[in-house]
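The step that takes the researchers longest sounds almost clerical: writing a folded protein down as plain text. The outcome of that step, for a single protein, is printed below.
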Amino acid sequence: MAKLSVVIITFNEEQNILRCIQSVTGLADEIIVVDSHSTDKTGMIARANGCRFIPRAFDGYGTQKQFAVDQARNRWILSLDADECLTQSLKEEIARLMASEKIGHNGYLLRRNLVYLGRTMKFSGTGNEKLLRLFNRDHGRFNDVKVHEQVILDAKPGLLKNKILHYSYRDLAQHLAKTNEYTSHAAAENKKNGKRYPGAWVILKFPVSFITFYLFKGGILDGYPGMMWSFMASVYGSMKIAKTIESSAK
C-alpha cells in the first residue's frame, strides 16, 4: 500500500483551508501546509487539524509548490490548493488506487469543477478541466513559473474518474483582487520570456475572449454565473496584455 502526502500552499485562507483539510483527512498519511506568512487564522486552523505547518516567503506558485513537495516524507503526492476539496467519490477512488498492488501510472490527471457565485459550473470553459495533481515525486515535479504552474511528468499520466471542487472566488470583489494579482505575475513572466503584444490587442482581446467563453464554451448555459465568469475571464486576458505592454516599456 502506497503512502500519500498531501501538500497545500496558503496565504490568508481561513475561509477555505478547513474544508480542504477535511476532504483529505483519513486519506493522507500526512498533510503539509506551506504558508506565505498569513495574517489570519490559517496557521491556527491547520495546526489544530494535524497539519505540518511551514512558513515560507512566497516566490512564485511553481517554486512554492515544489518546496512543499520537497518537504514530504512519501513518494506519492497529492497537491491541492486551499480553495479546493475532494469529493467523497474522488477520495474513495484515490484510496483504492493507493491500496492497489501495482499503481499503473506515475501520475494522474484529476477532473475539476469550479463552484462560482453559488453554482457548480458545467460549461464556461471550466467544466472539463483535467489537472495533474496526483503523482510520484520520483517521476514528476512542478515547473518554476510564477503563475499557471504545472507538474512535469516523465511519462503519460492516467486519468481518474471523479472530481475536485474548486471554490476559487468568494465573490466578485475577491475575483477582481485575484485577477489583479495573477495578471501581474503573468505579465512579469511574459516580460522575462520576451513576449510582446501590439497595443490594439488590449481592446480586441476582450470581445474575442467573451464570445469564446460565453458562446463557444457554453457560458450562456451556466446562467448569470456563466455570464460573469465569461466577463471576468475576458478582463483577465486584456489586463494581462496591458500589463505586459506596460512592464516591457519600463
Q: What stands out?
A: The chain has a mean pLDDT of 96.
